[in-house]
Amino acid sequence: MISIEEMDNLLYMSQRQGKISFYMTSFGETATTVGTTAALQSQDFIFPQYREQGSFMWRGFTIEQIVNQCIGNHLDGGKGRQMPVHYGSKDLNIVTVSSPLTTQVPQASGAGYGFRVNGENKIAATWFGEGAASEGDFHSAMNFAQTLKCQTLFLCRNNHYAISTPTDDQFRGDTIAGKAPAYGMRTLKIDGNDLLAVYNGVKYAREQIIKNKEPFFIEFITYRIGDHSTSDHSVLYRSQEEIDSWKSGNNPINRLGLFLKKQGLRQFNDEHDNQIRKDVRNRVIAALKNGSEQQQPSIQDMFTDVYDEVLPHLSEQYTQLRDHLTKYKDQYPINKFKGGL
Amino acid sequence: MQLLKRVHQFGSTKHRFASDIGSTNRQKMNLFQAINNALDIELGANPKALLFGEDVKFGGVFRCSQGLNEKYGTDRVFNTPLCEQGIGAFGIGLASVGYTAIAEIQFGDYIFPAFDQIVNEAAKFRYRSGNQFNCGSLTIRSTWGAVGHGALYHSQSPEAYFAHTPGLKVVVPRDPIQAKGLLLASIRDKNPVIFFEPKALYRNAEDEVPLDDYELELSKAEVVQQGKHITLIGYGTSIRVLREASKMAEKDGVSCEIIDLQTIYPYDGQTLVDSVKKTGRCIITHEAPQTCGMGAELSAFIQEKCFLHLEAPIRRVTGYDTPFPLVHEPIYLPDKFKIYEAIKESVNY
């Protein structure tokens, strides 16, 4: 959690410095993602929203992979096609992030159905915020999952804001967890800033999903300490006092640290933690430097992966582009692309 | 750039044209029976194939899934809740983890709640993930076209909306033999395919359909009738209308070449170009409204490639730019008389 916080700090600043175009931090919410992913098994598929770098990094997604995706260089697993923070990893069973909100949730219902009918010890775990839960896709997902008995785990990060929209403008009724029993679904509501509660709750939910072959819903109550993204300035719609009260009074990193200290399990040692932060900072800085020196994916890669193979009309369009770029080569940053023309 | 080789699966045979299928092991089937047969073959050959949608379990409102739940069980052939956006998303999710998802949307007119999932998710799944993920094993089957009394919401031809979306394939069969082969090819194609079935033909179209497992190539148009003087392009139910119009034109000594597009997107431009370079004249027909219909795209493409060969402007004979009407249907449709008039004007230009 400390590493993620430090990395988020650096990458936020790197956007302000023009090194990457955009970034989204997860300050205040890392217990939800880290605790959850620790309680899942590696073969479980995760369908993320966009603020779950904790899930990625717990499973081993590296700082370098994160930075390369944000820069969009040729080392990005996504081949430079998407905006920053749209990570994905086939190796880690985490489906690539997409910008349209909530679309991943009913997809997780589908995946969870496949796992059940094939008798697999696998679940589909999907993340979404309390704002995303207002989309129609949320309703479809919940109804399909329970009615068709899907091995799907619904994970809602209620962090109190959807960009500037506070929960009072988002829903009435008893939070998102209040909706789940209406679908016939088992539900837990967990303090999302208590890492151990998160871990234990998700572990239980996963066991129940596999045992009963039906979905489970968890809402985590947490708080988005940072801005929605680098395009946001949250003091325009909330008070600094509110932010600070969560930051100092209900912060997942501090709470875990204090707990471990009281249990005598760890020295809450400022010097040690500062070293972790320093190491992470250096690693991010190195990744940014190396990453920015890399070329972007090739020009051909604009045309690949639209289909499983490059179809004739795309081949023709590539040829037209190539001829145009050859003719006007001084007007375009051709050497930025791997392989050039 | 390399085109990857296709790999045969499940012992099926691949053909370019239905006329290439030499099989004598045939059975008289209508369109819904041919579809049913294709689904039966895939479910039998592929244990990871699943068929689902509204009312699919009892056999489907058009009987396409008749007997399949009894044969393959409710885990594999099942009803979904009444929710098209859910059906689309559910299918994408299944396909993304390796299942062959055959999703049914009962009427093309109701595919729009799933539009976001289809256009923003299914179509872009492979590209945006850098090919780490894909939902190529998703096929969405839906019904399509005029039926005589369907009005606004049981008659639509929505192909153009999806043909404007890179990453998707869109297919419309004209007859039972094509439907079976094109559906099997669509299901096995490694890209998400939308397969529109002309509902007017479910019972009305009959053929001696081969019982084998066979596929017909996607993105290949078929010249269903050779001709010299003018090229007529259509798909689905409009092929019948083109045949009738061409018989009328024949009496005037006009020889018409009729092409079935089959795959709407990505379409087989080469076959169209070869034909129009030969005839110099072209008419495109579809039930969907004129503006921004497939006629618009094909006209632009053909005039770009065949400009100096054209003897007359390319004509579109289509539905009007109105919602699909009920009582006005007989005068709304692009029928044989309208096409015949367009042929005459073109030939006499």
From TrEMBL, chain A:
Keywords: Oxidoreductase, Thiamine pyrophosphate. It catalyses: N(6)-[(R)-lipoyl]-L-lysyl-[protein] + 3-methyl-2-oxobutanoate + H(+) = N(6)-[(R)-S(8)-2-methylpropanoyldihydrolipoyl]-L-lysyl-[protein] + CO2. Coiled coil: none annotated. Its EC number is 1.2.4.4. Transmembrane segments: none annotated. Residues 5-299 form the Dehydrogenase E1 component domain. Signal peptide: none annotated. It holds the Pfam family E1_dh. GO terms for molecular function: branched-chain 2-oxo acid dehydrogenase activity. One of its GO terms (biological process) is branched-chain amino acid catabolic process. It is an enzyme of class 1 (oxidoreductase). Its cofactor is thiamine diphosphate. Belongs to the BCKDHA family. The branched-chain alpha-keto dehydrogenase complex catalyzes the overall conversion of alpha-keto acids to acyl-CoA and CO(2). It contains multiple copies of three enzymatic components: branched-chain alpha-keto acid decarboxylase (E1), lipoamide acyltransferase (E2) and lipoamide dehydrogenase (E3). This is 2-oxoisovalerate dehydrogenase subunit alpha. The lineage of its organism: Eukaryota, Sar, Alveolata, Ciliophora, Intramacronucleata.
TrEMBL record, chain B:
One of its GO terms (biological process) is branched-chain amino acid catabolic process. Its cofactor is thiamine diphosphate. The keyword Cell membrane does not apply. It catalyses: N(6)-[(R)-lipoyl]-L-lysyl-[protein] + 3-methyl-2-oxobutanoate + H(+) = N(6)-[(R)-S(8)-2-methylpropanoyldihydrolipoyl]-L-lysyl-[protein] + CO2. InterPro entries: Transketolase-like_Pyr-bd (IPR005475), Transketolase_C (IPR033248). It comes from Paramecium sonneborni. It holds the Pfam family Transketolase_C. Residues 29-204 form the Transketolase-like pyrimidine-binding domain. Transmembrane segments: none annotated. This is Transketolase-like pyrimidine-binding domain-containing protein. GO terms for molecular function: branched-chain 2-oxo acid dehydrogenase activity. Keywords: Oxidoreductase.
